[in-house]
Amino acid sequence: MSSADNKAKRASKNLYQISPSATEYQRLNRQHELIQEIMMGKVFHSPVKDPIRILDVGCGTGAVTYHLGSTFPSAQIYGVDLATIPPTPKKPDSVTFIHGDYHDLLGSEDPYITPGSMDFVFSRLLISGMTTWPSYIRTCHTLLKPNRWLEIQELEFPYYDDSGVISNDWEWFQAYQAGAEAKGLDLSCAVRAADWMREAGFVDVQTKKYCWPHGEWMAERGHEEYRNIGIFLTTEQPRLYQAIVPNMVSGMGYSDEKVKELQRDVLETLNPEEGKHKNYWVTFGKKPS
Ligand SMILES: C[S@@+](CC[C@H](N)C(=O)[O-])C[C@H]1O[C@@H](n2cnc3c(N)ncnc32)[C@H](O)[C@@H]1O
Predict the structure, then answer these.
(1) pTM > 0.85: yes or no
(2) N or C: lower Cβ tally within 10 Å for the chain?
(3) What is the tally of structural domains in the chain?
(4) CA-proximal residue: ligand 1, atom 20 (nearest)
(5) pLDDT of 161-212, one tens digit each?
(6) Domain extent for 237
């Protein structure tokens, strides 16, 4: 995975649209805290017991990797990402970061990531880069030991309010969806993960859906743990989608002026409103014995 021969292949698969920067690292770390807040302190849901090796796929800043390291101090934790993980003076020896492409986890030259070696595989928010979901999930099945767990946490693309989906008619939303499809991304991965896991042979597959509110309405309805994420998403989601739109619709024949119009449409549609939200899905399942 980390050989020079794979670099061109890897680059072509790097569809993730946000380049690593201090601002992006800050956004990911804050998002990590807020996801943990709405999950009432949890980071993962799988019943992981006495793990020896854990893999965090597309680990970003390593926020989950470090969490796993401190939760399971006697385990070895591996985080894989194409981007460089920001250095930290507090990195425990049990945490190893591997620079590589998550499309190539199997057949990797990496001695740590081998079939039947893992006690837990975790991934979160790969929606903007993963192009091979069913085969990725089969690979995770191969990497796991029997009776061990895979957990996938992903965001649904549509926006909802209390009456149902509200985003289908938004122009930027339609363009983004078409661009994503043309690039091999699957924006419905959050809702399809459970079926893909069952098809790959996982059992006891469970899902839990969390709300990502746009604004503070969940808190006003008595769910205080959603206040901070609601405030965060109100500014961060429009900023994120505005940044991603040009790459996502590239190659689809839009003029620069039209792309700017789509970016303005992001801002116009993503104002905070009562009930406006996305769904965030946690899916986990066990490789049978
Ligand atoms: C939205 S971030 C999520 C990071 C982390 N999982 C989290 O939840 O904070 C997606 C991550 O996937 C990584 N990524 C995108 N394409 C990748 C690929 N082909 N192989 C490995 N990592 C990739 C990006 O570099 C980025 O760090």
Answers:
(1) yes
(2) C
(3) 1
(4) 101
(5) 999 999 999 999 999 999 999 999 999 999 999 999 999 999 999 999 999 9
(6) 4-286
**Residue 60 alpha carbon, nearest atom of ligand 1:** 27
Ligand 1 centroid to Cα of residue 166, in Å, is: 28
CATH (domain of 192): 3.40.50.150
What pLDDT, in 10s, does the model give residues 29-57? 999 999 999 999 999 999 999 999 999 99
* CA pair distance 184, 178, nearest whole angstrom: 10
For ligand 1, say whether the CB of 285 is within 6 Å of any of its atoms: no
